[in-house]
Every structure is written in C-alpha cells, then in structure tokens.
C-alpha cells in the first residue's frame, strides 16, 4: 500500500535480513533483483552498499542483479 511508502520500512527490513543472514548463513551472499525503472529500490540497494553484478533478461525485460556483502 502506498501509505507505507517512504517511511523506511523497506530499509529496516532489508538491514535486518542482511544482519540475520550474516549471522546464520555467512557462506551465502544475498542478491536483489530490481527492475531498472524502480528507482526507489535502486537507491535502497545503493544505501545498503549492494553492488551491481549484472543485468539479466527476465519476463521480457532487463533486470539488475545486485549482490550484498562479500
């Protein structure tokens, strides 16, 4: 729901997931798959220090794959 946009919930949730993953499954690096027009998600990936790894074709379009950590 748009009423929850811009309140930092996605950032808080993503940071929590990354923290838990680092603690319990440190051998696995997480990725985010983001449509290039989703600028808010691209900004969030940058804020989380994720690095663009590659672009892939999926469902008729190009998607960005960002890797977290490692």
Q: What structural category do the secondary elements indicate?
A: alpha+beta
Give a count of the beta strands, DSSP E runs of length 2 or more: 3
The portion of residues assigned to helices is 25-40%
Write down the secondary-structure element order.
HEHEE
Main sheet makeup: 3 strands, antiparallel
Percent of sequence in beta strands: 25-35%
Q: Mean pLDDT score, rounded? A: 94
How far apart the termini lie comes to: 33 Å
Strand order of the largest sheet: 1-3-2
Runs in which pLDDT lies below 50 for 5 or more consecutive residues are none
Number of helical segments? 2
**Backbone shape:** flat
| Rg from Cα | 13 Å
Provide a descriptive summary of the structure in words.
This protein is α+β, with helices and mostly antiparallel strands and 70 residues long. Helix content is 36%, strand content 27%. It contains two helices and three strands; from the N terminus they run αβαββ. A three-stranded antiparallel beta sheet has the order 1-3-2, covered by helices on one side. β2 (51-58) and β3 (61-67) form a beta hairpin. It is flat.
